[in-house]
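just leaving the lab so this will be short. below you get a single protein, a line of residues and a line of whole numbers that encode the local backbone shape. id like you to explain what the token line says about the fold, in plain words if possible. thanks a lot i owe you, the record is right below:

…
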Amino acid sequence: PPADAVLMPHMVNISGSVATGMLLRKVAPDYPVIAKDARVIGVVVLQAIISKEGHIRDLHVVSGNKMLQDAALDAVRQWEYRPYLLNGEPVEVMTTINVVFTLGG
């Protein structure tokens, strides 16, 4: 590469609020019946890698009630994002996603 070439990072970390601003398609989780019957509420925290194209490439649970985790994973896997641009080029991003489960009243 030329001496003045700038190497682009392969992946960057972004905050959950920045990622939320890039969200194009959000699928709400299906509240698990057993969790709803048990009146379980809470937040499932997920760590995600979003591809250059804006799709979830890797996703795992950081914390949250076990009864709610699969529903959160299933929903977020369907989310789509606007590609994150760094110097005009799309890059993969790592971010945290909070999926909130509440019981309507």
